[in-house]
Design brief:
By secondary structure, this protein is of the alpha/beta class. The chain has one domain: P-loop containing nucleotide triphosphate hydrolases (Rossmann fold), CATH 3.40.50.300. It has 8 helices and 5 strands. The chain has a 5-stranded parallel beta sheet with strand order 2-3-1-4-5, with helices on both faces. α2 crosses α4. The radius of gyration is 16 Å and the shape is globular. The two termini are about 20 Å apart.
Length: about 180
């Protein structure tokens, strides 16, 4: 059974790659934001964070993912939100329930992509670059510590070629098999 948890900084490609890689490997896929919104009965993960605050968000995230892991009977890839690194209970659950795959991108390429989608609540609106730098360094260290495998994705580019790169890295390191 293959249980892979794709982690990484916001907009690193976790959801896109989880969906594409799961298709290439022929296993199920889920996204923690979708699980969270169903579990909490809210419109979006971002709304839950804004309305209930950080602690309530992390608690609901933990419960939603825990329920999914318990109810899942087979192989899957689950993409996590970028802030999963700050939720120690969640990271511990992931570590004991499967393999944590850190999809890493260089900091310099990420901030413009993040800001293109609107100012996230976790960044200082008066100095987004400095606040992102601090968050990136903090979360990168945590993801590296917990990761069973770190895959450096390189610059943003062709999503399908990146998915093939991820599958190769998973196979080469014994985390997945797939017929070519």
């Amino acid at each position: 059974m293959v249980r892979l948890f794709f982690t990484g900084i916001k907009h690193s490609g976790k959801t896109t790659q989880a969906r594409l890689v799961s298709s290439l490997l022929g296993i199920g896929y889920a996204d923690s934001d979708d699980l969270l919104t169903r579990y909490a009965g809210c419109a979006s993960a971002r709304d839950l964070y804004r309305e209930k605050g950080r602690e309530a968000f992390m608690e609901a995230e933990m419960e939603a993912v825990s329920s999914f892991v318990k109810e899942s009977g087979g192989s899957f890839i689950l993409s996590l939100g970028g802030g999963a690194a700050d939720n120690t209970a969640l990271m511990d659950l992931l570590k004991e329930s499967g393999s944590i795959i850190y999809l890493r991108r260089e900091e310099e390429s990420m901030l413009p992509v993040i800001l293109k989608h609107g100012m996230p609540a976790f960044l200082d609106k008066d100095d987004p670059a400095s606040s992102f730098h601090r968050i990136y360094e903090h979360r990168d260290a945590i993801y590296r510590e917990y990761a069973d495998l770190t895959i450096d994705l390189g610059p943003y580019g062709d999503r399908e070629k990146t998915a093939e790169q991820v599958v190769r890295a998973l196979e080469e390191n014994g985390y997945a098999e797939h017929d070519r």
